Amino acid sequence: MAVLAALPSTSRRRSPRPRRVGAWLWRRRTLSAGVALIALMTILALAAPLLTPYSYHTMYYDAILAGPSRQHIFGTDGLGRDVYTRVIYSYQVSLRVAAGSVGLSLLMGVPLGLLAGYWGGWVDAALMRAVDLLLAFPAILLAISLIAILGQGLGVMVVAIAVVYVPILARVLRGSVLAVRNSAYVEGARARGAGHGRLMLRHVLPNSIGPTVVQAALLMAFAIQIEAGLSFLGLGVQPPTPSLGYMLQENHGYIDQSPWSTLFPCLAIALAVLAFNLLGSGLRDLLDPRGSGR
Amino acid sequence: MIAEALLEVRNLSVRFATERGQVQAVTGLNLTVRSGETLGLVGESGCGKSTTAMALMRLLPRTARVRAASLRFEGRDLLTLNPRELQGLRGNRMAMIFQNPMTSLDPSFTIGAQIVDVLREHRNLPAGAAREAALDLLRRVGIAAAEQRFRAHPHQLSGGQRQRVVIAIALACDPSLLIADEPTTALDVTIQAQILTLLRDIGAERHAAMVLITHDLGVVARMCDRVAVMYAGRLVEEGPVRAIFAEPRHPYTIALLRSIPSGGQARGALEVIEGTVPDLVNPPPGCPFAPRCHHRMAICDTRMPEPREAAPGHRAACFLHGHDHE
Q1: For residue range B302-317, what is the model confidence (pLDDT) as tens digits?
Q2: Distance between CA A172 and CA A98 in Å, rounded?
Q3: Is the CB of B98 less than 8 angstroms away from the CB of A8?
Q4: Which residues on chain B are in Cβ contact (under 8 Å) with A9?
Q5: Nearest to A2 among B98, B108, B110 (CB)
Q6: Over the stretch B261-287, which tens digit does the pLDDT of each residue have?
Q7: Integer Cα distance of A199 and A185 in angstroms
């Protein structure tokens, strides 16, 4: 919400001239690049059936491990499947996992962090000890254990990554809530007759959510890596659904004969991680009151 | 002046639990504020002025123990009201202006939205009417180009303008009591006078009584009908402004008046009150000012003098006055 709040001050000088818009975007080029790349990946993922003549599971036996050509621009894999097609379909999984896991963990972590930071005392102590317990486990190990308990699949992976993220987001939010809770304007709002619910949601949350939003964007990048890692280990989505990590797993044996079938999925992962990192840094600049990014 | 008491505080005590022990921030305070009058609450830093104000608003943190024989406001005992009833009073019947206008407005919302908020919260006005009322308020507190400023964020306004907005918010619902905690301390001297004039005029216009907390006796002289002087959590003297300035009774008040710099004085001639404020964790049994007092007597170290009437409406808590050396 603080993002939204920061916008009107600049858009107040709104001008019909596109040059102004261009200048605004250029000054926030990190953010713009991140948003543009994410938009591009989303389009690739959603419009995948329209963007390729192939299906992701058809095998072309006459073109096994082929290099890039006009027919197969990223080449083909060990089973003769079109790598470009499989990459853009894989983005469906990557983006769903990234958005789903971070969304779910925000849904749980934001109320936890807000309550802990706002109420303090035993509420804070109880919630934060639970969070500490979760933080004590290595992230990947925790995710693998959850998958072992709950079984495999996209939904389970989303839940597993979300559980890993909840304590991180709750911690970050709690910290900034602590800083805002005792500010003069919160006290002022209380002196004007605002109740706890209103204080928390309308005054404390919008002024403290910034770092959490930045952290969430960075965690999306990390979620894409975790998804690829889990899929590489065979703990992610089930074949034939294509996933970037699984593509690496299938083709890493051919790496010296035909690097294309691993190179392009690798680049795809790198691009996705870069995009969300750019988004995160861009948001940090935008939300930092001392920066010129405002 | 109307005789009816708007706010009646009887025997108010506030204690804070800290690591060092119980801090006795306010002890046995009696105060009366009548409708429409302005009471100045003076004293040095840490004497309990702000704590008293926060206790009146029932805004003290949970670590504070508030006790009072009565805390009556508009005929209701503030100590027995539930949180919801208190919320209904705050910002509505009793409003507060804080010291620092730079931080007392929410940076995430436009100032218009913040005024409209209060109006809708307490007055149930529809959005359009609330907007109109908010614009009127902005104009009334002297904000030029109110329509534009309505859409401004706090960081786009100067300190003086922000304090005007804070005053507009405080007065939005026509409170009968306005508590202003050092409303001009954080402002430039030139702006201070403007804000004080505004507060006085607009307060009078809306018949709001005011408790003006300050350490500036010059402000008291300009603004107040009566003064209450606090020292170490206790009320040491109280009376009409004229009487206090002309004939201060308590040695602390006398010393305080002497320490005001006046224009004609030679440099370096300022009077200082020797010594420091007593530790409020273990307050001495006698008069808290005794260690710094020029008129200290044996009795001062053993007993706390009760406030006695020195003249009609003028009370002082000192063995020099009204006590026949019992």
Answers
A1: 888 888 887 888 888 8
A2: 19
A3: no
A4: 153, 155-156
A5: B108
A6: 665 555 555 667 777 777 777 777 788
A7: 10
Q: Do B90 and A192 touch (CB under 8 A)?
A: yes
* A12 touching B (Cβ < 8 Å): yes
Q: What is the mean pLDDT of chain B?
A: 85
List, for residues A240-269, the tens digit of each pLDDT value. 888 998 999 888 888 888 888 889 999 999
Q: A5, B84: Cβ pair inside 8 Å?
A: no
pLDDT tens-digit readout, A147-159: 889 888 889 999 9
**b (16+ CB within 10 A) / e for B99-138:** bbbbbbbbbbbbbbbbbbbbbbbbeebeeeebbebbbebb
Chain A nearest C-alpha distance from B249 (Å): 35
Residue A151: phi, psi to the nearest 5?
A: 95, 180
**Cβ atoms < 10 Å from Cβ of B323:** 15
**CB contact, 8 Å: A37 with chain B?**
no
Sequence-distant (≥ 6) Cβ neighbours of residue A85 within 8 angstroms: A48, A52, A54, A55, A56
- At which residue do the structure tokens 């060990």 appear? A78
Query: For residue B156, which residues of chain A lie inside 8 Å, CB to CB?
Result: 9
Q: Which residues of chain A have a CB within 8 Å of the CB of B169?
A: 192
Of A184, A185, A192, the CB nearest to B91: A192
Residue B107, preceding bond cis, omega within 30 degrees? no
DSSP E strands, chain B: 5-18, 21-34, 38-42, 64-67, 70-73, 76-77, 94-97, 177-181, 209-214, 226-231, 234-240, 308-311, 314-316
The amino acid sitting at B14 is: V
The predicted model scores a pTM of 0.81
How many Å from the N-terminal Cα to the C-terminal Cα in chain A? 15
What percentage of chain B reaches a pLDDT higher than 70? 94
Residue A190 touches partner B, C-beta closer than 8 Å: yes
**B224 contact partners, CB below 8 Å, separation of at least 6:** B38, B39, B40, B212, B241
ipTM score for this prediction: 0.80
Q: How many angstroms separate the CA atoms of A67 and A163, rounded?
A: 41
Closest CA to B231 of B216, B248, B215, B244: B215
List the single residue in A with minimal CA-CA distance to B63: A121
**CA dist., res. B178 & res. B170, Å (int):** 8
Rounded to whole angstroms, the Cα distance separating A220 from A38 reads 11
User: How many residues would you count in chain A?
Assistant: 294
Give the chain A residue nearest B170 (alpha carbons): A192
Least Cα distance to B273 among B260, B286, B287 occurs for B260
Contact B59 A187 (CB under 8 A): yes
Give CA–CA dist A148/B35, Å, rounded: 72
